[in-house]
Recover the amino acids of this structure.
């Protein structure tokens, strides 16, 4: 708390001087921190947004990948940055609402460490299996799960894949064995190879594999079908109306960032998201547009934290 107050105190005079002299904000380049390595879904979504946002602000927006600790390293770096609106987090539900309940010593507070600006997109998870496995329909998978303990892959403990699988098992009334991997890529490869029975993958990561026939999709964890995979039933259509899980991505500034700066960022990000190049890039990976006012984004984050805290507790999930 003392550090946060100090940073806010140091940032305030600079912002005040800029306002009093009529200097524009921003007066130098911005940094958009993606808390995962290059090439992942968050990185793919952040880059076209950064380019469009930079053009609208008249400053370069540099994407900086700071992966590690399931997104915690990058998120912590932004939470500790000066609250001047020049260092932003391209955050995800993973490190802001899903894994935090598992950590007692998380280096940031997901509720109080940030000034939410707006989400930018969301996408559901997709339950996928290997074709020819005998599990190519949801009734077949559930029937087999009642005969033997099926396995499901994830990109790590507390990940969206893990927690969606736990919620699915709870709602379907079956037991599944969790097999965590060090990332979504290895998990996906082992499902394709048939070493693990199923996987609740993020939609953008498996759209090509489903279209190419390497995977069979059984349902999407959304209230309606995805335009990216229109042939795949929604969760309600599949008989699991409560299995609604979306992974969102959004932009957050450090806590203490002036409201005027947050408002400017919010307006310019919405403008950037409306540009055809950004919309088209998001559509190609199956990301649905999602924007909210800063206050509503904060409410979404808190609601998701409460939800996943309860799911983790009911399932008895712990870091190993």
């Amino acid at each position: 708390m003392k550090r946060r107050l100090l940073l806010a105190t140091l940032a305030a005079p600079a912002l005040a001087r800029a306002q009093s002299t009529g200097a524009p904000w921003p007066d130098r380049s911005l940094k958009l921190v993606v808390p995962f390595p290059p090439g992942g879904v968050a990185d793919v979504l952040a880059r076209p947004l950064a380019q469009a946002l930079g053009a609208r602000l008249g400053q370069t927006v540099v994407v900086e990948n700071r992966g590690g600790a399931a997104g915690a390293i990058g998120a912590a770096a932004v939470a500790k940055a000066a609250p001047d609106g020049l260092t932003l987090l391209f955050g995800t539900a993973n490190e802001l609402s899903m894994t935090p309940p598992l950590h007692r010593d998380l280096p940031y507070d997901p509720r109080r460490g940030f000034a939410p600006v707006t989400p930018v997109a969301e996408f559901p998870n997709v339950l996928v299996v290997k074709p020819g496995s005998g599990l190519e329909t949801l009734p077949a998978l559930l029937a087999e799960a009642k005969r033997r303990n099926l396995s499901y892959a994830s990109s790590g403990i507390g990940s969206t894949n893990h927690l969606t699988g736990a919620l699915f098992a709870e709602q379907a009334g079956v037991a599944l064995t969790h097999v965590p991997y060090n990332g979504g890529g290895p998990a996906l490869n082992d499902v394709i190879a048939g070493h693990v029975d199923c996987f609740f993958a993020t939609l953008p990561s498996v759209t090509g594999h489903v279209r190419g026939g390497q995977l069979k999709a059984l349902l999407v964890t959304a209230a309606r079908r995805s335009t990216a995979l229109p042939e795949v039933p929604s969760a309600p259509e599949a008989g699991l109306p409560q299995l609604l899980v979306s992974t969102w991505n959004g932009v957050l500034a450090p806590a203490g960032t002036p409201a005027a700066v947050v408002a400017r960022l919010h307006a310019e990000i919405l403008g950037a998201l409306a540009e055809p190049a950004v919309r088209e890039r998001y559509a190609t990976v199956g990301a649905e547009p999602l924007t909210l006012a800063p206050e509503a984004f904060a409410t979404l984050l808190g609601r998701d934290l409460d939800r996943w805290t309860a799911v983790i507790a009911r399932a008895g999930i712990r870091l190993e």
User: Anything to note?
Assistant: DSSP finds eleven helices and ten strands in the chain. The radius of gyration is 20 Å. Residues 294-315 form the longest helix (22 residues).
